[in-house]
Amino acid sequence: MTAPCLGAPGALLAIISGPSGVGKDTIIDVLREHHPDPSRHFVVTCTTRERRDAEIAGVSYHFLSDDGFAALRDHGALLEASEVHGNWYGTPRDQVVDALVEGRDAILKIDVQGARAIRERAPQAVSIFVVPPSLEELYERLTARRTESADELDRRRRDAAVELARQDDYDYVVVNETGQVARTASRIDEILVREHLLHPDRRVAV
User: Fold this and answer.
1) CATH architecture group of domain 13-43+105-198
2) 151 or 101, which is more confident?
3) Residue 1: pLDDT band by 50, 70, 90 thresholds?
4) 75 φ, ψ to 5°?
5) Among 25, 157, 178, 206, which is most buried by a count of CB atoms within 10 Å?
6) What's the whole-model pTM score?
7) What is the pLDDT of residue 141?
């Protein structure tokens, strides 16, 4: 493992996680657009999955081949790497380190497996778990986006039930009510501001 790097005082490592279909991508988009802050860097995750129609390479994700992803992982370029629903996801280490050293917040949008790995590696991180108003509502969202087969939908539904049972592992839990993503993003923005006020001298080692 690469030697840990210590971030500047006050720079925050924030994890935004939650089950598939809960709306993490949309929340990040709203945070960027309606709560702009030059002191925040939204880390772009690497993945081996196929790009969806509305996604932009290098903005939504870094889309990589299996070999390309494996090369980054094997060379220690990823803080964490997790296989989720048959695809690999990983957090680029350089994006996180560069932001923290510069005194900027590094904001991660990652799956539940990845969030656990980051919390173990950097216990100073602030973790936010986004939940749906109900499992039934989450199932409806997964079905409506029409990006998975019936078998894949069933697997994501089973995984979501398991992941939601672990929400107490996080520092904050935020409900993403249907049609209220702006409110959800505002709540997360408030959490980030609050953490700065509570711990102005916190330093994160990654």
Assistant:
1) 3-Layer(aba) Sandwich (3.40)
2) 101
3) low
4) -95, 10
5) 206
6) 0.92
7) 87
